[in-house]
Amino acid sequence: MFLNRKYLPVFVTFGLLAVMFAIGSFRYTGFFSTQVLLNLLIDNAFLIITAIGMTFVIVSGGIDLSVGSVIALTTIISASLVEKQGWSPAIVIPMVLVMGALFGTVMGAIIHYFKIQPFIVTLAGMFLARGLCYVISLDTITITNPFYTQVAQAKISLPGGSFVSINVIIALVIVLLAIFLAHYTRFGRNVYAIGGSEQSALLMGLPVARTKILVYTFSGLCSALAGVVFTFYMLSGYGLHAMGLELDTIAAVVIGGTLLTGGVGYVAGTFIGVLIQGAIQTIISFEGTLSSWWTKIVIGLMLFVFILFQRLLSGRRVSSKSLH
Amino acid sequence: MAGKMRKHHLFWPLCMLGLLLIFNLLYSPDFFSLVMREGNLYGSLIDILNFGAPLILVSIGMTLVIATGGIDLSVGSIVAISGAVACMSISRGVDQNSLGLMLGALGLSIGLSLILGIWNGALVSVARIQPIIATLILMVAGRGIAQLITSGQIITVSNANYAYIGAGSLAALPFSIFIVLTVLLVASLLTRKTALGLFIESVGSNANASQLAGIRSKTVILTVYVFCGLCAGIAGLILSSNVSSADGNNAGLWYELDAILAVVIGGTSLNGGRFYLMGTVVGALIIQTLTTTIYMIGVPPEVTLVVKAFVVLAVCLIQSDSFRNSMVIRWKKRKFPAEQGVNRHVS
Fold it and tell me: For a tag on chain A, would you pick the N or C end, based on fewer CB atoms within 10 A?
C-alpha cells in the first residue's frame, strides 16, 4: 500500500543514496559518521532551498535559469547595504526576499501574458541579475556585521556530539512547508494540473495565470532566501557567487524523479537529489588526490552511473513523452 | 502582400537584425564600409560573419536537436575538446608546419566529436535519459577532459595550414564563412529536399507515434546528436585556429546558452516538432551583432550583461503575438477617449 508504484522513482533514488553512502563508508575511514551526513545538509542548505523552488517551476512545465544569479544578487545587495551603508539586517533581509519574489513575479507575468518560452525569459533574467551584481560591485564584499557572523557560527548541538547550523533548520522548514504546499493544498494541485496539460487546466476553470505567476514568484523567493542562507554560509557578497548553480539545481530536481516535461515530481525527491549531488562531492573530497579537471570528469562519470542505475531500476513506464 | 510578409517566420528576426544594424550605422557611420586590402575584404560586417561563424555552426546543429524535442548542453565542452585535441596533436608533431600533421589533427578532432555526439545520442535514444541531463554529463565531464588534454594551460601552435581554417581567406572573404555555408547547405538540402526533415519534425512531435508509423525514432534522434557534435567539433576547430591556440578552460564557455538563444530567436520552439534553419542563422547573427555592438559603443564590461538581458527580452517581446496585440489594443484605447472628448466638445 505504502509502496505505491508512483513513488517507486523516489524510493529507488533514496536506495541509491544509501548504497552510495555505504560504499563511501567502506572505502574511506571516517566517512561513516552522523556528522558527515549532517555536513551534507550544512553545505547544501542553499541548494536545497533553491531546488525546491525549481521543483514547483519544473512540475508546472517551466524552467527557471535565473536562480544562481538571483542568489549572487542577493548576497551582493545584502553585503553592500549592511557593510557599506550600515543598514540593519532586520531591514535588509526582508527587503531582499521581497525583491527576489518580485523578480520572479515579473518573469512569470512576462512568460504567461506574452507567451514567451520560460527558458528565454529566465535566461534574460539570469543575464540581468548577474549584470546588476557587477554594476553594484566588481569585488568581494566581506561581511563583518555581528548578526551575520553570529548566525554563521551558531551551532545547534544534537545528541551524539554532532551539530547542524541555522541554515539547515531554515532549509528543513522550507522542505516541510513545500511538501505541504505541493501535496495538501489547492495551489499544489493546480501546479500539477498545469504541468500535466495547461489547456485542460484552463478548460477545467483553474486559475492558470495566477498559479503560473505564483510558481515563478515562489521560485524567486526561494532563490532570494537561498541567497540569504548563502550569505550566512560564505559571509561575503560577490558577483561570481553561485556560478552555474542553475544547472546543479535542475540536475538535482531531475535526479529526484521530476520529469522536465512537467506534471510529475516530488519535493521529497528533490531533497534526496540534492543530497546525492552532495554525496558525490563528499566522496570526491574524501578521495582528496584529484586535480580540478579530474574532479569534473569523475563528477560526470558518477552522475552517469547514477542516472543509468536509476533508469534501469525504476523502469518508468514509457509514456508518449518519455522518450524526451 | 504586407500581411503575408509579416506572417513569414523570418520577418521579425530580420527586423530585429535590421534595427541593430541601423543603430550601428547611426552610431558609427562607417559601420557598413568595406575596405579591400591585399585582396581581402575588411570591415565590421565581415568581422561579424567571421567571428560569428562558430556560433552559427553550433546553432545549426542545435536546431536539429531542439527540433526532436531535445537539447544539447554539451556543445561548449565539445568545442573546447575539439580545439584542444587539434592543437595538442599539432604541437606534439616534429615539423609543426606540415600539412599531413594538420590533416591528422583535423581527422582526430572530427572523429572525437563524432564519438561524443554518438555518446550523447545513445544516452538519449537508447538509455532514454532526459536530454538535458544526458548532455549535462558531458558538459561537466567534457570541460574536465578539455582541461586534462591541455593540462589547464593555453596551447599555442604555429601551423600556417591550420591557421587558414579560421583566419585564412578565399575569394576575398574569410574561409570560415565558406565552411558555415557548406554545412548550412548540406543541412538544408538533407532536411528540406529529403524526408529527413519530416522525420525529425515527426519525432519531435511524438517519438512513439512516429515509431509506430514506421520511422526509426531512435536512429533519427541518434543522428541529430551526432550531427550536433560534428557541428560543435568544426566550430571548435575554427575557434582555435583563428587564434592558433587552444584554451581548455574558457573555449566555448556558455556557447550552449547562446546557441539555444539563437535557435529560439529564430522561431524554433523548444517543445520540438518544427524548426527553421535560416531563422537560426539570423538568430545567431543577431547575437553576434549585439556582442559586436556592445563592444563597439564602449559599454563598460560590467553593464554588458544588463544590456544583453534587455535586448534579448526586447527581441522576444517583439516576436510575441500576444505582446504586439496588447500593445495595439493599448494604442487604440489611448486614442479613443481623446477623440470622443473632441467630438463632445464640438457638438
Answer: N
Judged by CB atoms closer than 8 Å, whether chains meet at B270 and A127 is answered as no
Flag if A134 and B302 touch (Cβ within 8 Å).
Answer: yes
Gap between the Cα atoms of A167 and A154, Å rounded: 10
- B208/A130 touch (CB, cutoff 8 Å), yes or no: no
Q: Residue A125 — very low, low, confident or very high, per pLDDT cuts 50/70/90? A: very high
User: pLDDT tens, B252-266?
Assistant: 778 888 898 889 888
What pLDDT is stored for residue B225 in this prediction?
Answer: 95
**Residue type at position A236:** S
Residue A254 has its nearest CB partner, among B130, B145, B148, at: B130
d(CA B167, CA A200): 54
CA–CA distance, B35 with B329 (Å, rounded to integer): 47
Q: Which residues contact B60 (CB under 8 A, 6 or more apart)?
A: B183, B184, B187, B231, B277, B280, B281
A163 Ramachandran zone, left/alpha/beta (phi>0; psi -120 to 50): beta
Indicate if the pLDDT at residue B204 is higher than 90: no
What are the phi and psi torsion angles at B102 (to 5°)?
Answer: -65, -40
Percent of chain A with pLDDT over 90: 45
Distance CA A68, CA A1 (A): 39
Asked if B313 lies within 8 A of A110 by C-beta distance, the reply is: yes
pLDDT at A318 over 50: no
Question: Strands, E, within chain A: which ranges?
Answer: 141-142, 156-157, 163-164, 236-237
| Helix (H) or strand (E) segment spanning residue A109 | helix A89-113
Chain A nearest-CA distance from B132, in A, is 8
Four-residue CA torsion sign, A268, A273, A276, A278: negative
* Cα–Cα distance for residue pair A79/A241, rounded to 1 Å: 12
Judged by a CB distance cut-off of 8 A, whether residue B219 touches chain A is no
Q: C-alpha angle A278/A282/A286, rounded to 5°?
A: 175
DSSP B93: S
Give the three cell numbers for residue A295: 574532479
Whether B251 and B79 have beta carbons less than 8 Å apart is answered as: yes
- The Cα A96–Cα A70 span in angstroms is 10
Chain A within 8 Å of B310 (Cβ-Cβ)? yes
Residues 6+ apart with CB under 8 A from A219: A53, A54, A56, A57, A64, A67, A104
Q: Which residues are within 8 A (CB) of B211 and not within 5 positions of it... i.e. 6 or more apart?
A: B217, B218
Q: Which residues contact B291 (CB under 8 A, 6 or more apart)?
A: none
Cβ atoms of A67 and A249 within 8 Å: the answer is yes
How big is the A-B interface in CB pairs under 8 Å?
152
pTM above 0.95, yes or no: no
DSSP state of A159: T
Beta strands in chain B (DSSP E): 35-37, 40-42, 154-156, 169-170, 173-174, 245-247
SS (H, E, C) A225-268: HHHHHHHHHHCEECCCCCCCHHHHHHHHHHHCCCCCCCCCCCHH
